[in-house]
Amino acid sequence: MDLLMTTTDAKIETPSRTLTARRILSWVLGLPPAYYVLAILIAVAPAVSATLINPNYWFVILKQSAPLGIAVLAQSLVMRVRSIDLSVSGVFAFSIYLASSGLLNSYPPFVTVLMPVVIGLVVGLINGALVAYVRASAVIATLSVSAILIGVVQYMSAGRAPGSTPSWLRVLTSGNIYGLSYSVIVWIGISVLVALAFRFLILGRYFRAVGDNPRAAEITGIPLARTIFVSHTLAGTLTGIAALVQVSALAIGTIKPGFDTFMNALAATILGGVTFGVDRGGVAGPFVAVVAFSFLFAMLTVFGIQEPGKLIVQGGIIALAAIIYGARVGRV
């Protein structure tokens, strides 16, 4: 009798273990590609350079990633509602120029701090109005706004590089708590707030509904235009905060538009599991993608690979991510 009960228990336990293993495997395979990329990079890092696995070096990588990380959060907001924001370069260029040109030296410091955020907010409002209410193409509208901002910078600077950024503002990047830069703390704090907002606020449900099916969302009573408008406004504000962090990381200003920032933001958003209307990565996915990109670029620098090579590798990773998503959709 005891033998029969033992055999029966074993038969019940085996399918249970198999089901658990399948669930774990399904969860792992469902992760955004950013997790795979970062895991592979960490695995090969010891063979490349001992510096890459030094904890202090990881603090440096996180500090360098903070502006891009916040910009990725901004991009993920609009992509969740099937839109896009190409004005990142313009906001960065305009904010960096104003902070380093000396035009704000006669004003209180808080004006310099608020200036990038206000610029981002205004740009977000303009983008949101054009895309949501005028029904302009998001690509054309946001790219036009970026071009105008960059043109204004070129006109005001007459092609000359501005001066240095305020030394007191650099504390945002150089200051730290137990080695963790203030800018990284800001990045993590904003990420947590965005995650909580999507989890508990009705706005998160609106974003998901619009991303799944805009027409069906509108039919069910969700304010489609307002949701898209809010997404662009919030994205613009976050881009402004990212520009502020970027300014704090610079000793000398520049008039370069920061095109690489926009490309990296878009790439990290996609690699992190957020595409047009698809949000499989949540907030953690893009966060991991930013760290993976920064770690990858650091590793490529160790190999002596310059910017053109980095762009090729970056494009290849994005293409691979697109193939993976296509295969998953095909299976569904």
What's the topology here?
Blueprint: H1 2-29, H2 33-48, H3 55-80, H4 88-100, H5 109-133, H6 138-157, H7 171-174, E1 176-177, E2 180-181, H8 182-200, H9 202-212, H10 214-219, H11 224-249, H12 259-271, E3 274-275, E4 278-279, H13 284-302, H14 307-331
Antiparallel strand pairs: 1-2, 3-4
Helix pairs in contact: 2-13, 3-8, 3-11, 3-12, 3-13, 4-5, 4-6, 4-11, 5-6, 5-11, 8-9, 9-11, 12-13, 12-14
What share of residues are in beta strands? under 5%
Sequence of secondary-structure elements = HHHHHHHEEHHHHHEEHH
Are there runs of 5+ residues with pLDDT below 50, and where? none
CATH class placement: Mainly Alpha
Number of strands: 4
Assign the CATH architecture.
Answer: Orthogonal Bundle
Q: What's the average pLDDT?
A: 83
CATH names the topology as ABC transporter involved in vitamin B12 uptake, BtuC
User: What is the helical fraction, as a range of percent?
Assistant: over 70%
Principal-axes geometry comes out as globular
Largest sheet: 2 strands, antiparallel
Oligomer: single chain
**Structural domains: how many:** 1
User: What is the CA-atom radius of gyration, in angstroms?
Assistant: 23 Å
Number of helices: 14
Order of the strands making up the biggest sheet: 1-2
In angstroms, what separates the terminal alpha carbons?
Answer: 46 Å
Classify the secondary structure makeup into a structural class: mainly alpha
